[in-house]
Amino acid sequence: MSLAPWRSSIAHALYRNRSLAYCKFVQLATVRPDGHPANRTVVFRGFWEETNQLKFITDFRSQKISDLYEQPWAEVCWYFPKTREQFRLHGRLMLVSLHTDDKELQALRSQTWQDLSLAARAQFSWADPGTTRDLDAPFQMELPSETEVLPEFCVLLMDPQTVDHLELRGDPQNRTDYERQTDDTWVRTAVNP
Ligand SMILES: Cc1cc2nc3c(=O)[nH]c(=O)nc-3n(C[C@H](O)[C@H](O)[C@H](O)COP(=O)(O)O)c2cc1C
């Protein structure tokens, strides 16, 4: 698969905003089973190998996982403050969990786990996220090993179908839409901002 034309714009934005640690924080919106939107911040963890799929990590017990079982469509909104540009990527989410059979995807899950810091790995040993916390009880956590991937640990891959790139810099602003026609073909259109 060849790299989509919007990939170079994201690479450029990541490079020019590299001094801002938070430039890899994106907003990931999903649709709840009741049809209401849900949105949260997640860390962009690169693209999966040579594909155009964005990689995120999450906990199997989180709301976004139950959302995507019902409805895999999601949108990522990503703002780069230094270069003042926004990307909105719309596509399907694919879950890579303990239950995923595909060997290549399971290897991706293990490798991503190994690449995490100790503190990041420990979060997957915490009690059920979103359930009521007993503030009087000691906070339970363990330090999981590098090789034993905790069952709660998941990788999420997002496969964009459309990308909307808005550049605020310039007079006038520039806005470019990208639409995927086939696996490998994208149509790029300059649109009014
Ligand atoms: C800066 C920042 C980075 C975050 N990164 C992640 C992440 O990479 N993965 C993740 O699942 N949650 C991340 N979170 C927590 C989520 O925003 C959210 O609270 C959590 O995933 C539960 O959301 P859900 O139950 O709607 O799925 C991050 C939060 C912040 C503020």
Structure description:
The protein is α+β, with helices and mostly antiparallel strands. The chain has a single domain, classed as Pnp Oxidase, Chain A (Roll). Helices cover 19% and strands 35% of the residues. Strands 1, 2, 3, 4, 5, 6, 7 and 8 form an 8-stranded antiparallel beta sheet that branches. The model has no long low-confidence stretch (mean pLDDT 95). The structure holds flavin mononucleotide (FMN). Flavin mononucleotide binds next to strand 2, strand 3 and helix 2.
Question: Number of DSSP helices?
Answer: 4
- Main sheet properties: 8 strands, antiparallel
Distance, first to last CA: 30 Å
Mean pLDDT across all amino acids: 95
Order of helices and strands: HEEEHEEHHEEE
Q: Estimate nothing, just give the exact number of structural domains.
A: 1
Could you give me the name of the CATH homologous superfamily?
Electron Transport, Fmn-binding Protein, Chain A
Shape: globular
Q: What structural category do the secondary elements indicate?
A: alpha+beta
* CATH topology category name: Pnp Oxidase, Chain A
- List how many beta strands DSSP finds: 8
Topology:
Elements: H1 6-16, E1 25-31, E2 37-43, E3 54-59, H2 63-70, E4 73-80, E5 85-96, H3 103-115, H4 118-122, E6 153-167, E7 174-180, E8 186-191
Briefly characterize the structure.
By secondary structure, the protein is of the alpha+beta class.
Features:
193 residues; alpha+beta; Pnp Oxidase, Chain A; 8-stranded antiparallel β-sheet; globular; binds flavin mononucleotide
